[in-house]
Amino acid sequence: MNRLNHRGDTIVEVLIAIVIVSSVLVGSFVSAQRSLTATRRSQERGEALKTAEGQVEQLRRAAILRQGSLFDASASNQFCVDSTGTRSNLSASFPTSVDSDTFSAYPASCQTSYGGVTYHTAVIRSGLPATPTFVVHTRWDRAGGGGNEEVTLAYRIYQ
User: How many domains does the chain have?
Assistant: First the structure.
């Protein structure tokens, strides 16, 4: 009987090739996911920074126009300013820890939404009435979970 000389891959070689290709594909997927997550976080941070800068611009505008409600020492030290320059006080004490913030203290006028993420802004006034310092906190819950983030800007007004 003639023995045919068939050449081909053995099952072990095929399994090794599958493992190598799978490892490369999994590595590519993990790298792409990390890149997308980093891009998303960067976008969220950029939007939060724009929101905080908007609050600083409202404070600057109020200082130029000498709107006393923002600088009144007897008024609440925790508030936000909407696009019309109207002040809204926080309904509860501002949480000092970003991780413990449940966003329940912020009125609707202190919230803005971009890309499916809601940004909550609070302005904390401190310092002397003649030279108040305003610290703007913009916080949000990361898209996809993972906790809260915060952008903080400080602005001092010299009158």
Answer: 1
> Beta strands of the chain (E only): which ranges?
78-81, 87-89, 111-114, 117-126, 133-141, 148-156
Q: Is residue 106 included in any domain, yes or no?
A: yes
Cut 0.85: pTM above it: no
In a domain, 42, yes or no: yes
Domain hosting 83: range is: 11-156
Identify the CA nearest to 130 among candidates 104, 99, 156, 92.
156
**Cα–Cα distance measured from residue 15 to residue 113, given in angstroms and rounded to the nearest whole number:** 50
Residue 139 lies in a domain: yes
| Interval 15-42: pLDDT, tens | 999 999 999 999 999 999 999 999 999 9
Q: Per residue in 99-109, pLDDT tens?
A: 888 999 899 98
Could you read off the pLDDT of 115-157 as tens digits, one per residue? 889 999 999 988 777 788 899 999 999 887 788 999 999 998 8
- Domain presence at residue 3: no
